[in-house]
Every structure is written in C-alpha cells, then in structure tokens.
Design brief:
heterodimer; A: 307 residues; mainly alpha; ABC transporter involved in vitamin B12 uptake, BtuC; B: 289 residues; alpha/beta; Rossmann fold; six-stranded mixed beta sheet; 9 helices; 12 strands; 32% helix; globular
Chain lengths: 307, 289
C-alpha cells in the first residue's frame, strides 16, 4: 500500500503542496484534528504534572487505562469509556494512597504496585477477549492516530472543551497548591479536593490521548513538552503555553513524517519530543558550565562565589 | 463599636488602649486525645512583635495554626481582628515551617510572591482586559519584593536560590496583601548565622514600616532579641507570656520545665539557657529533616 503510494505522495519542498497532500484524505484530517486537540490539553496538564512531581502517577494512570480499554471490550462498552472509568478509579486510588503515605517515598511504591496489578488485570482481560481484539492491543499500547474516526473527533472535541474550561477555572489555585500546599491550605485553597479533581482530569486526558499516542507513549505528549518548557522559561503562564506549543509541533510533525514514511506515527512523536528534550537539557548544561567558567575566571569571583 | 454609644457605657471611660488584633481567651488544644497546651490567655496589640519560644514538640506551631484557624480549639476562644479565627483570613500573612523548595522547581520567585495576592482565586486574570488592575497587582508584588530586599533575584528560579533568599521571598508572599498580622513559623530555622541576622532584620524593619503585629516561632531568641516586645514561652503544656526579661529567667523557666534551669546573660545581651531537659534537646536535633 505504502509502496504503491510512494510516487504520488512523496513530500516536495513546496510546503503548501505538501500540506494539501497531507490533508487530502479524511482520515488524515481526523488525525490532525484529534491530534491538535489532544496536544492542547496534554500540554497544559503536563505542566502541572511536572510541577507536582506526579509524572510517575500520571504514567501509572495511563497504564491502568490498558486494563480499562481491554476490560471495556470484554464487557461490550466503548473503549474510551472504559479508559476513563479505569482512570478515575486509579485517580481515587492514587489520591487515597498519597494521603495515607503523606509525602514519603512510600507513595511511589504504592502507585507502582497498583499499576502493575492493573496491567496484569488487563493481560487477563486480553486473554479472555476475542482474538480479533487481541490484535488491537497495539493500538491501545502505542496509539493509532490514523484510525481516528469522525465520531472520535467529536468525543475528543467535547472532552477538550470540558478539560480546557475546568483547567482555566482551577489553574491559579491548582498552581498554588502544587507549589506550596501548606500556604495554599492556610489561604483557603481546597488542596485535597483540587488534587483529586486534577487526577480525574488527568484520567480524562489519558482516555482521549490514548488514541493518538497510546498508553505507553503518552509521556511524550504529557511530560516531555512540559519538562522542556520549564527549562526555557520560569514564568508559569508562558511555560504552560510553551508546553502546549511543543506538544502541537511534535504531534503535527510526527503525523506528517508518519504519513510520508511507512513507519508508525507514535514513534516519531515520541522521538521528536525526546530529541528536543535532550537538546534543551544538553544546551542548558553546556550554557551553565560556560557561565560558571566565566565566573571562575573573572576577578573578584571568590567574594561572589563565597556569598 | 456601636454598643459603645449606648448611654450606660458612654459614661464609663474605657481604660484599655487600642483594640487588640488577636485576643486569646482560656484556649486549649487537644490533638489525638493529648492536651498540647491549656489556659492560654494572650492579647496582641497592633505593631507588637511576639516571639513564641519553647522546646520542640511543645506546641509552638500549634498555637500559630490555632490563630490561623487551621486547628480547632478544645476549649476557649481566639478572635482575630474582632472575629473568630478562621481559615483563609487575608488579614494574616503566614509563612509555615518548611523544608526548602526542591532544586528542580523552575518557577521564578516573582510568580510565587504573586500567589500571595490572588493565588486562591478561581479563573485566570486577563491582563489585556483590565490593564489597570494588572499594573496595580504587579506594583504590589514589586513593593513586597523591595521590602524584603529580594529585587536582585526575584526573577530567578526559586529552586536555585539559597535558603535565606527563598525565606525572604516567602515573607514577601505573606506581605503582599499588606496583612495586619504576620505569622512566621521558624523563619530562621536552617539558615546560617549571617542569613539569620539578615532575615531577622528584614522582619523587624517590616513590623516597624507596616505596623503589622508579628508572631514569630523560634527556638533561639537571640537573633530576634533586639526586636522582641514580648515572649510567649510554651513548655510542658504551660504557657508564660511577658517581656523577655520577665519570662526568660531562671525562676520562670525552672517552674515551666519543672526542673532546674539556669538562664545566663552574656555581656552583649545574648541569653543562654542551660539545663533544658535532655530528651527534648535531642528530639530537636533530629527533627530538621
């Protein structure tokens, strides 16, 4: 299929023509629409995820989605509903464990135990499900943006509307509670309720994002763009905007490259995200060393260095 | 205030001075069935600087939290500016006891100070719709940052700052609403001597410039001694209130601890307390992390 199309659909240096080719088929239009909406919310959610040091909890939430998706097929409900329900259950579980463990490292272990158990459950569901669905497991694990239907785009659109609305509403108190829960609580911010609301929203993001990048690669849209953004700017609103912009670029470029090559889209989205992360961190590290060397060689640095 | 105009009271001169900002009456707190302290009576005047002292685990932070309305009383009342203590009172600026921000928190200090102004509000401000309010907010934040002397590093990531710099920015966060009361829980803890003096100086200067009453929890009174008006000493569930000269004495502390304590005064005015019960001292040595 790809070989037959290779002649007519190879990219040129004419950007307008390329975009016309890209968006020629409805399945690509759906992929771009769905991908754009998912990247928008994933970028904002990711900023809070990094701020709250909850990337592991988020990753686990996505993996719990695997059990949700496979279980949904077994019980005959739409996978996206199964993903969301499993995610909400996991969110409540993680929240309870976090409250019980306080801020100790134990909460990481508890979250890990829950998510491994849910992976095993998903494995069982998969075994019990029909063999034709078993082939679909790749889509759950790694995503299949080229398979997004018009109905899916509708679901993603309404989910995005709810997510962005809720996030804009709670953005400031959530930021306060993430940075400094003690002071936030003293100022009257409902810290615990916000933590739960945040995890439920995260479950919703995961449920819709799984179609684009799958439960295993979701990190690439949730965490990596936000982590890069935090190294570019320390202004919260700007950092969230940069995270969204990066998630959008990774998705758009990943879809385009995936379309023109025979390789999967999820691989490209993840690789572009990872590559950019390495570049920014590496660049930041080199810049820091250079600055330190300048300081060390300048006269009077011993006074400044001691202070 | 309206009742003062009634004929029965107007003929009687009221002897008290300005109304206290905090009035604690016969208060007690019990946590997990254990009474932390009881029979606390305290009245804080505007602009007063109070140090809350005592061994660790005595309930110094608990007193602060009770005034903030974060912990319910088992008996008695606390009123703040004439109203019962309640959570989220904007008239109190609060800096809790804390560890440092993690080094990987890459948010500039200015944004953290700003949280003190409107961090609890729902929704997002839209600067392009209300440029006047945005400018006003930015200038109050800058004013608070100037007041603590943090201007030169307010735009750097807070995780990269030293403990003293972080503490100054957190005090600025507490100050940004121009509170009538400043509640600081061990703000000098885990700072080196130079930063202890610097931060103590900033707090004293703030209380003089803004007229805010300061409640400061400390386990060493010496860095703040020149600024302190009165001391609240908590030990073994008992509370003693008075000037440092009245409270930090061999007799009072021996009575509070129910064991012989010796208070020495060095020629430079520094106070040394000798003979504090050993287990409480060692408890505090392990607590800081």
């Amino acid at each position: 299929m790809h070989i037959a199309l290779a002649d007519t659909l190879s990219p040129s240096w004419d950007l307008v023509a390329d975009i016309q080719i890209l968006l020629h088929y409805p399945f690509m239009q759906n992929a771009y629409l769905g991908g754009t909406l998912v990247a928008l919310t994933a970028g904002i959610m990711g900023y809070f995820m990094v701020l709250r040091s909850q990337s592991f909890a988020g990753h686990s939430l996505a993996n719990v989605g695997f059990a949700g998706a496979t279980g949904a097929v077994l019980f005959g409900i739409p996978p996206i509903v199964g993903l969301f329900l499993a995610g909400v259950l996991a969110a409540v579980g993680i929240q309870t464990l976090n409250l019980a463990a306080g801020r100790s490292r134990q909460s990481d272990i508890a979250v890990g135990a829950v998510f491994t158990a849910s992976l095993a459950l998903g494995f069982l569901f998969l075994h019990l499900a029909t063999t034709e669905y078993a082939a679909n497991v790749y889509n759950v694990l790694f995503g299949n943006p080229l398979g997004i239907s018009a109905a899916d785009v509708g679901i993603i659109f309404w989910s995005t509307l709810v997510l962005v609305g809720a996030l804009l509403l709670i953005a400031r108190p959530l930021f306060f509670a993430s940075i400094d829960p003690d002071v936030a609580a003293a100022r009257g911010v409902p810290v615990r309720a916000l933590a739960l609301v945040y995890l439920v929203l995260l479950a919703l993001v995961v449920a819709v994002a799984v179609q684009v990048v799958g439960v295993l690669l979701i990190f690439a849209l949730l965490v990596t763009p936000a982590a890069i953004a935090q190294h570019i700017t320390t202004r919260p609103a700007l950092a969230a905007a940069v995270a969204v912009a990066l998630a959008l670029v990774f998705t758009w470029v990943g879809l385009a490259v995936g379309y023109f090559t025979p390789y999967p889209v999820g691989f490209f989205i993840t690789s572009f995200a990872f590559g950019t992360y390495v570049l920014v961190r590496g660049g930041g590290f080199a810049l820091g060393r250079m600055r330190r060397r300048d300081l060390a060689s300048s006269p009077g640095s011993r006074v400044g260095g001691a202070a | 205030m309206m009742t003062d105009l009634s004929p029965t009271t107007s003929t009687v001169p009221i002897p008290t001075g300005p109304t206290p900002v905090i009035q604690v009456e016969d208060a007690a707190v019990a946590l997990g069935g254990r009474t932390i302290w009881q029979e606390v009576r305290l009245s804080v005047q505007p602009g007063e600087f109070l140090a809350i002292l005592g061994p660790n685990g005595a309930g110094k932070s608990t007193l602060l939290k009770a005034i903030l309305g974060l912990i319910p009383l088992s008996r008695g009342t606390i009123s703040v500016l004439g109203h019962p203590a309640r959570r989220g009172n904007a008239a109190i600026g609060y800096v809790p006891q804390r560890r440092h921000f993690e080094a990987d928190v890459r948010v500039r200090g200015r944004s953290i100070v700003r949280l003190g102004l409107d961090g609890r509000n729902w929704g997002l401000p839209l600067p392009f719709l209300q440029p006047g309010r945005a400018r006003e907010a930015a200038s109050s934040v800058q004013e608070a940052i100037d007041l603590v002397g943090a201007t030169s590093y307010a735009d750097r990531p807070i995780g990269e700052l030293s403990g003293g710099e972080q503490q100054r920015l957190l005090i600025a966060q507490a100050l940004v609403t121009r509170p009538r009361i400043l509640a600081l829980d061990e703000p000098l803890d885990s700072l080196d001597l130079r930063n202890q003096q610097g931060v103590a100086g900033v707090i004293r200067q703030i209380s003089q410039e803004t007229g805010a009453a300061v409640l400061l929890v400390a386990h060493d009174v010496n860095p703040i001694l020149p600024a302190v008006d009165r001391v609240v000493y908590i030990a073994h569930g008992q509370v003693e209130v008075g000037t440092p000269e009245e409270v930090i004495t061999t007799e009072t502390l021996s009575r509070l601890y129910a064991t012989p304590i010796e208070v020495l005064r060095a020629s430079d005015g520094r106070i040394v307390v000798v003979g504090q019960p050993e287990e409480e001292v060692s408890y505090h040595a392990h607590r800081s992390r």
